[in-house]
Prior knowledge:
- The chain has five helices and 15 strands.
- The protein has helices at about 40-55, 100-110, 145-155, 190, 230-235; strands spanning about 15-20, 60-65, 80, 85-90, 115, 125-130, 135, 160-165, 175-180, 185, 200-205, 215-220, 220-225, 240-245, 260-265.
- The strands form five sheets. A three-stranded mixed beta sheet has the order 2-1-15, with helices on one face.
- The protein starts with 14 loop residues before the first strand and ends in a 6-residue tail after the last strand.
- The model has no long low-confidence stretch (mean pLDDT about 95).
Amino acid sequence: MSGRAERGRSVSFTHALCRAPSSSIVEGLRAEDRGAPDADVFRAEHAAYVAGLEAAGVAVTVLDPLEAFPDSVFVEDPALVLDGVAIVLRPGAPSRAGEAAALRPALERHCDGVLDLGRGLVDGGDILCTDDRVLVGLSARTDRDGVEALTPLVDGLGYRLELVETPPEILHFKTECGLIDPETVLATPRLAATGCFTGLRVIETATGEEAAANAIAVNGRVLVSAGHPATTERLREAGFAVVELPTTQSALVDGGLSCMSLRYSRRGAS
């Protein structure tokens, strides 16, 4: 593949893979225990999320729940898909170690090719992709060995990998940022202050609305977690078409909008 980036490929998608939340989501990982999610409410919010992707023109495949893996609804963490080619990652949380192998058959069915990270640890929640760069934040779940293994894989797909030193108090790099157009990031003031977004415009979340940063851009729309009115207003004033979606239950287990889908375009798809 040519190293020249196709404009807009970071925010334009034809397909997405999601996984339905399992009943075991009540046992999902969480940095702070604010109570277990309600599995039924989670399913309803997940259905609204899938509908939001479909309304943006994405063909969504929803995989069956995996009861053995409480956090498996967060399907972005065990894989990265670039231009239709999947890279099977190695999530850093021990309880999620088997998710990548469980996801691989679906990637083989729905993607244009499948590669394997092979060594180290990388969580998809630590990866932010622009049109030509793959920014990877080090965290408790992504290490340097994994980043070194990932570098030649993304290079072979026409991207340049950049390592980011995520502040240690942030769980995942994308916990506090999201790409909202090919040249713009929504980020918390804390993460923006690190200077990690060189070459990108940054819109900061409003005070007290840091959770809004985990937004996703899909085919001309920006999907944002509901309940962050000041940040939503900033985005609308900047000209973005904002769609608010409920994420009350995923937030209880350290999840957000980006981690509940693998968004990509098949080669040759219009």
